[in-house]
Amino acid sequence: MTRPYSSELKKSVLQKVIIKGRPVSDVSIEYGIGQSTIYRWLKADSELKKNSKEKFIMNKLEQRLQEVSDERDILIKAASIFAKKITY
């Protein structure tokens, strides 16, 4: 059964491994946490960052698509106005 760990402890462990580059085995011994638990936290952290980045990119792309669609609509209206003027 897994023990509940505080978010502060998880953050501290991940910082030591990711930012400071300490080996998981050393951090595992220092905090008395299993290596598999730390690896699971690392995987979850990387997936969270990946999902956040993907959501950011999707939002930017959706915004740009809306801008381009609006510009296209304006150009279509302008073309129809000019076409009417030419035929008269």
TrEMBL record:
SUPFAM superfamilies: Homeodomain-like (SSF46689). InterPro entries: Homeodomain-like_sf, Transposase_8. Belongs to the transposase 8 family. This is IS630 transposase-related protein.
